[in-house]
Amino acid sequence: METPRAFFYGLRMTAFKEGDPTTLNRLYGRSQGKPLRAGQQELVDKLLPQIAVPAEGPVTSEVLFGDSRPLHFEIGFGGGEHLAYRADLLPDHGFIGAEPFVNGVAQALVHVRDGSLANVRLHWGDALEVLARIPDGSLTMLYLLHPDPWPKAKHAKRRMMNDGPVKLFAQKLKPGGEFRFGTDHDVYLRHALMVMQRHTDLFEWQVNGRESWEIRPSGWCETRYEHKARTVYGHEVWYFRFRRR
């Protein structure tokens, strides 16, 4: 069985080193694709304001849900399949999702409506802005699944997996909380593991051989994006779980 150390050092790591950009200070890329259908636009106009994260002030369980409950946060939820799956699986937990792409927000709203998911709150925009307003040590789980890889080295500063954001993740997770990261892009994989290797004081990789990163963990559903990456493009998909120390 391949060991985690062998897997880690078997990757080509020379492209990334300490000193790469550590923060994101703006959103990159498109915020809208195809025009929304009438039904989607209606959800954005009517349902989103009802379940939107407040624009200002602390983002707490009490503010969002009126009670104290475990909080989960998903950065860049895409079409919202994973967010909706987890919210349906854990109805007594609170789920916050942030996504800059309005088409993804509209699709997530369809999941919320069809699943009658009262435990979901959404933010259309910058995930880090909302995350910064969550009190330290409040999150039970944080998810970053298939983020935009920005594969060119000159775009490395645009990646969500950089030292600044990772430190913020640790700050907001409670001790023992879990950070889940998934990707199908080998360049991003190498970059992300180099970043996480620099923060072993904050996170412990939950790993026990190849199955830990090759087989999707329990409670981690396959999204449409992941299915397309695997079946259409033939990409390998990797799954990582890190525990907050």
- Helical coverage, percent range: 25-40%
How would you describe the shape?
A: globular
* End-to-end distance: 26 Å
Structure classification: alpha/beta
Give me some keywords for this one.
245 residues, alpha/beta, Rossmann fold, seven-stranded mixed β-sheet, 7 strands
Give a description of the structure.
- Helix content is 36%, strand content 18%.
- With 245 residues, it is an alpha/beta fold.
- The protein has a single domain (4-244), classed as Vaccinia Virus protein VP39 (Rossmann fold, 3-Layer(aba) Sandwich), CATH 3.40.50.150.
- Helix 2 packs across helix 5 (102-115) and helix 4 packs parallel to helix 5 (102-115).
- The two termini are 26 Å apart.
Provide a short characterization of the protein structure.
The protein has 245 residues and is of the alpha/beta class.
